Amino acid sequence: MVERKHWPMEDSVQGTSSAVLEEIFYVTSKRNTYYKVKLTEKGLSLQKEHNGATKIETIALGDIIGCRCMRSKRRNTGSCACRPGASKSQMKLVESAELYQQCDELDMSAYLYIYAYTLKKTRMKVTLRRERTTITLRFRSFDKYEDNLREASRWRLAIKCLVANVPVPKNLMSPSHGNLETLVGACPGENRKLLVLVNPKSGPGRGRDTFQKRIHPILSEAERSYEIHVTKCSNYAREFVRTRDIYQWSGLLMVGGDGIVFEVVNGIFQRPDWEKALRELPLGVIPCGSGNGLAKSIAHAKKEPYDRNPLLISALSAVKCKKTSMDIVRVETRNQILFSFLSVGWGLLADIDIESERLRAIGGQRFTVWSVARLIGLRTYKGKVSYLPCNKVPTTENMENGNIYHKDYIAENILSHSRSYGDELDRCCAKPESEPKDFYNTFGESSNDLNGYDDNDMITENLALETENERRHRLDSFYSATSAKSTYFSTGSASSYHSMEDDNSTEIDAENICNNQVMYGPSSTLPALTSQFSNCWTTIQGEFIMVHAAYQTHLGQDYFFAPRAALADGIIWLLIAKAGISRANLVQFLLGLSSGTHVTCPGVDMIPVKAFRIEPMEGTSGHITVDGEEVDYGPLQAEIFSSLASVMTP
């Protein structure tokens, strides 16, 4: 029998925050080791005690996305469905009928799984990445499952309140409070679902598969329910958002490239209640397209290591319930009014964007291939560009060759490494039988990469800790065959993954949408497209290689177009390259787009403006794009409206 140790109440590890909950847990992989686990307003503190030695590590609260209460599932439950010849329908029936009934009656423990994605240095010690961390707290001090579940639920409630930034109900934290239903019902959460719009043809065409395998598990861990709709044709998302009751959802999450974001944004501005929609419904994007400029710009603004795992960083934005303001640009042509979140282009970059569509199957590499083609057959465009200069511009931030990661991220007490392999926690609705063996490795490195880590790392695998009762022997041990191989299922609601089918009565005929439908939004402060400007404007006339305006830092994952831009700074960054620039300088320009050094190329001017107008010469032809979508070739003017929309951020 192991004597239970008591941990006296004290301030946090650094003496700056008092504990909300604390408990002694025993590590399952070492018999003579125990942990003092403390939950504070800053995160989860793990104090390891081993043969008199003490080591402390923490998981920051901002890295925790959710937690779930589990119970051990009876071993081999449903094995009958795996017999030779069993159909998929039989397997699904076994899952739904037995998963929540056939529990392990010998194990009265309640398991609290805490999911976090912590920042960790890569092997090169230069960049950072987000890595999945799972902490398992096994509550087994009582002989009844309900009693252990009550203790686990108390921790779950406290964690969820802290993550959601709402007050922890102190009256429910006392062990004397024994009402399990009250503990479960007090957990904060969004009653409305996320609306997920999936473009199955974006980029290489793997949007639907990517969401199911890579994004759904993270939403499930954070208990963010959602309703998914797959777009069926061009402008489907635009018409969907325009016509539906979108306030039944808590946010709009788009799975695809910048094209589906463009549709959703303009669908919102076709609603008379556009102000309310933009105010109440943040926009999120899962990058599955060729460009993915908005997703990269959001991560860049929040200094997240996007390039290491774009899908993970964007998925974390959808579950952390954080949002920030974003500028929107009103674009006016001869025939229509549009609202843009990314860029307006005329000339070289617009040609590359539109003409490379025939190479969409190769993904983002299509831009590189077509850049070479356009350099060989370089074009010039005659016309006039006018702009309203911006008087106040933020100071340039110090950067080293585009490196956006700051030393502030390197914390001594960040949990070094923890991972769960091969578990099937709450994955029943995500077709676990079809998930790849290295499913969790997609969020970090492969399992083979673990071999070289420092042995001093406190946590090197899925950390499973359990409580102990000093008045009785252990009910069982994780060293036993039964408990070591058991699986667990959630005692809460099942995963919310499902595919919604549109009712035939509300079928969207998006192919016949007319671009001349009424556009709402803020009224323009500019003169008519055919009118002259005041003396405050600057006009340049002649031949141009390109004119490109951007209001986000990135036009694509590797296009660091406007290094000084911010999500909501009220500035359009207008890049002008006049005819006469050499091909060598253009090559330098294109190569510098990935690092932001292109703005220093001779013959290239980057001008901060509030509004601009492009007027191609009559009788000429070419491409003009808005957020990568081609619009009618002709006069165009645009102005920025600061902080008009909001986006989900990690």
UniProtKB/TrEMBL annotation:
Main location: membrane
Listed GO CC annotations: cytoplasm; endomembrane system; membrane
GO biological process: regulation of apoptotic process; sphingosine biosynthetic process
DAGKc domain sequence ranges: 189-335
Pfam families, per the entry: DAGK_cat (PF00781), YegS_C (PF19279)
Keywords tagged on the record: ATP-binding, Kinase, Membrane, Nucleotide-binding, Transferase
Keyword field contains Nucleotide-binding: yes
Group of enzyme by EC: transferase
Compartments it resides in: Endomembrane system
Protein name: sphingosine kinase
Organism: Atta cephalotes (Leafcutter ant)
